[in-house]
Amino acid sequence: MTGLLTARPLPARSKAFDLMFAGALFVSAGFLGLAYAQLGGVVGLAMVFPLIWRRTHPEAVFFAVSALAVLQWLANVQLQPGNIGLLVALYAISVYGDIRFSRIALGIGGLGVLMATSRYYASSDWREQLTIMVALGALVFGVWAIGERRRTRGLYVAQLEERAVQAERTRDRESKLAVSAERTRIAREIHDVVAHGLSIMIVQADGGLYAADQSPEAAKKALATIGDTGRASLTEMRKMLGLLKADEQNELDPNQPRPQPGVSSLPELIENVREAGLSVDYQVTGTPRDLPALLGLTAYRIVQEGLTNTLKHAGPGAQTSVSLDFGRDLLTVVVTDDGRGGGVAPSSEPGHGLVGMLQRASVSGGTVNAGPKAGGGYEVIAKLPYNLPNGGVA
């Protein structure tokens, strides 16, 4: 609750208007009252003067003007033009004052009607007194009701403005979160591209070094594969970095479609891995169907990461298989090999590639299980439902 002496902030233009308004009443009502009665005119001037602060201190102004009206009643001074200040103060407290003080002011206004009727119209018959009482009461209540309606409308407008500001803040916050998510996605894409390309290049470099003396043609082929893989990875990475660079000039739009690999790109990926020297068996079962871009990209990256891990850890001569099963409700992706790790030391913590697969599957509403197979080798099984978490359907 706002205190009686607590000033409301008010623009300079409004202060100037209040001063001019009170001054006009002071001149027109106050001096007019001086012409009829000296004491009444002084009281009338005193009732108009506080209206300068009617918006900054509405409660104090109303109670001050009401006290002067009681003094006028006790002194048996006739009603003066300055009594208009009572209605102005009542309107001000109903618009700008605390709502509880506003209701108290209405009660005081009703009591003032009874006091004025009993004192100033005592000589009239009861019918005339009743008519005057009803008229004055309607005037007091009407002024208060108009002010209360303006207060309610002002609060409604203030709520709308606050909601608009809150909606703008929420939009900005969601936009920043979307940009952050898009940056994270691009970073994950860059990791997948670089990790896969480097794995193929390392395998080819090791094979070319081994075959350099015995089979120069094989060494040349390995070098050609390294060059092709490096250029392809560099081109794709430049595209990803171009998106980040574009974000410095314009905000990323996660809803804007971007060309991304999908299930249809898997044969080309597997062929590149085969050229790197890894034997890969690729099978598709079930009835293939069009997949959302996110789901197709998730399946592609899971296969890419599985093959990258095979190149890194399965060892030479490992047999690898990739299978896609288009079931009724979900797509099952399986990447398996029979290697023994190629001498790579096991780690108790999951690598970035596995974490990336888990995150991608989670975004698509699916699951990923990865681990060693019984009898040797490694297996990755991903189950990706067609029904997306946000309600979209493939």
Automatic annotation (TrEMBL):
<keyword id="KW-0902">Two-component regulatory system</keyword>
<dbReference type="GO" id="GO:0005524">
    <property type="term" value="F:ATP binding"/>
</dbReference>
<keyword id="KW-0472">Membrane</keyword>
<dbReference type="InterPro" id="IPR050482">
    <property type="entry name" value="Sensor_HK_TwoCompSys"/>
</dbReference>
<dbReference type="Pfam" id="PF07730">
    <property type="entry name" value="HisKA_3"/>
</dbReference>
<protein>
    <recommendedName>
        <fullName>histidine kinase</fullName>
        <ecNumber>2.7.13.3</ecNumber>
    </recommendedName>
</protein>
<dbReference type="GO" id="GO:0000155">
    <property type="term" value="F:phosphorelay sensor kinase activity"/>
</dbReference>
<dbReference type="InterPro" id="IPR055558">
    <property type="entry name" value="DUF7134"/>
</dbReference>
<dbReference type="InterPro" id="IPR003594">
    <property type="entry name" value="HATPase_dom"/>
</dbReference>
<dbReference type="InterPro" id="IPR036890">
    <property type="entry name" value="HATPase_C_sf"/>
</dbReference>
<dbReference type="GO" id="GO:0016020">
    <property type="term" value="C:membrane"/>
</dbReference>
<dbReference type="InterPro" id="IPR011712">
    <property type="entry name" value="Sig_transdc_His_kin_sub3_dim/P"/>
</dbReference>
<dbReference type="Pfam" id="PF02518">
    <property type="entry name" value="HATPase_c"/>
</dbReference>
<keyword id="KW-0812">Transmembrane</keyword>
<feature type="transmembrane region" description="Helical">
    <location>
        <begin position="60"/>
        <end position="75"/>
    </location>
</feature>
<keyword id="KW-0597">Phosphoprotein</keyword>
<feature type="transmembrane region" description="Helical">
    <location>
        <begin position="129"/>
        <end position="147"/>
    </location>
</feature>
<keyword id="KW-0067">ATP-binding</keyword>
<keyword id="KW-0547">Nucleotide-binding</keyword>
<feature type="domain" description="Signal transduction histidine kinase subgroup 3 dimerisation and phosphoacceptor">
    <location>
        <begin position="182"/>
        <end position="247"/>
    </location>
</feature>
<feature type="transmembrane region" description="Helical">
    <location>
        <begin position="20"/>
        <end position="53"/>
    </location>
</feature>
<keyword id="KW-0418">Kinase</keyword>
<dbReference type="Pfam" id="PF23539">
    <property type="entry name" value="DUF7134"/>
</dbReference>
<dbReference type="GO" id="GO:0046983">
    <property type="term" value="F:protein dimerization activity"/>
</dbReference>
<keyword id="KW-1133">Transmembrane helix</keyword>
<feature type="transmembrane region" description="Helical">
    <location>
        <begin position="104"/>
        <end position="123"/>
    </location>
</feature>
<feature type="domain" description="Histidine kinase/HSP90-like ATPase">
    <location>
        <begin position="299"/>
        <end position="386"/>
    </location>
</feature>
<keyword id="KW-0808">Transferase</keyword>
<feature type="domain" description="DUF7134">
    <location>
        <begin position="13"/>
        <end position="153"/>
    </location>
</feature>
